[in-house]
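Retro notes (design track)

What went well: tokenization of the new backbones is finally stable.
What didn't: we kept losing track of which sequence belonged to which structure.
Fix going forward: every design gets posted as structure first, then sequence, in one message. First example under the new rule, 165 residues:
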């Protein structure tokens, strides 16, 4: 598992996925090619399922495009741990089933190479030898994450009720 550390604040959606590709890239593989290319040109070639991103304040600010959260979910990013998130990005990430954890103390404590583990049900982030708590996620949010996003979650509920195929 890799940890990608971007300690700066205000990493906007154009840094996560350049807006110039908004209308030419719509699938996961197309989006992956350009993920974080203006922030970390090596990201798309290194990222693997289960990797974690650690970042500063206001992560995901900017436009409301879904490409950044869709792309991060597609490549298998397990979680983004940041000091804070832009509200519109947070909602987009939930819709895609991407786990976001707000933990300024964990971000500040992280040093390059330290192992990181997350337990969303317990509301814990382990960085090196320390455990940082965050409010545990509500059961409904955990279900949305487990189901791979809001759309999959709704389909699952409809199927269980018999009103969806």
């Amino acid at each position: 598992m890799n940890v990608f550390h971007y300690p700066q604040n205000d990493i906007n959606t154009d840094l996560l996925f350049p807006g110039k590709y908004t209308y030419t890239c719509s699938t996961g593989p197309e989006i992956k090619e350009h993920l974080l290319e203006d922030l970390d040109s090596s990201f798309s070639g290194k990222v693997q399922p289960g990797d974690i991103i650690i970042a500063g304040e206001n992560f995901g600010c900017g436009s409301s495009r879904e490409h950044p959260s869709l792309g991060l979910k597609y490549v298998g990013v397990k979680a983004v741990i940041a000091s804070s998130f832009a509200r519109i990005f947070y909602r987009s990430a939930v819709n895609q089933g991407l786990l976001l954890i707000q933990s300024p103390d964990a971000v500040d404590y992280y040093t390059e190479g330290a192992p990181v583990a997350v337990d969303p049900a317990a509301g814990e982030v382990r960085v090196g030898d320390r455990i940082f708590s965050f409010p545990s996620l509500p059961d409904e949010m955990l279900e949305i994450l487990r189901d791979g996003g809001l759309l999959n979650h709704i389909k699952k509920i409809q199927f269980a009720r018999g009103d969806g195929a």
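Added context from the reviewer: The CA atoms of residues 144 and 152 lie 8 Å apart.
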